[in-house]
Amino acid sequence: VPFGYEPQLLAWQYRNGVSIFGCDGFAVYSNTTVQLAPNLVSRVVDSNLHCDYGGDSNSALNAWIFMAVWRQVIIDGDYLNFPWTVKVDPDAVFFPNRLRPLLREHQGSGYINNCKYGMHGPIEVLERRAVDALAEDYSKSWDGKAPKRCATEQHFGQYGEDMFM
Fold this sequence. Notes:
Elements: H1 6-16, E1 29-30, E2 35-37, E3 40-41, E4 43-44, E5 53-54, E6 59-60, H2 63-76, E7 84-88, H3 96-105, E8 111-112, E9 123-127, H4 128-140, H5 148-153, H6 161-164
Parallel strand pairs: 1-4
Antiparallel strand pairs: 2-3, 5-6, 7-9, 8-9
């Protein structure tokens, strides 16, 4: 978030109440504190946001970055106030008013799969119990910085965030 076009895009979305800012609650995460708009400051994640590109699709190998982001989401605990948590990339087209009816249809699902080939990163929709399960896995790891099963059973050197979630 601190570099490129994203700060201006997020400020515009905030002013217009669109994307995540049309949700009942929202937060923006970055590796530094960024004043995006009046009354909108990013929350800090303990991670460098730079990553390599590669793997099968030459995409961002950012699984470890998003492990740090989800860890901070869990630490902050705001997700506990809502039945669903939605992670949205700043440049993803997201309409909360179109998602709400789908959430009612998928209660008890844990998450909404957004592609027949698996959940992809620009928009991730997780039920509270899924984030709770992730939080429990973080608590089982030796340092709490990565979910235990992910850190011990997966190799994320060539994976993006979609493979982590």
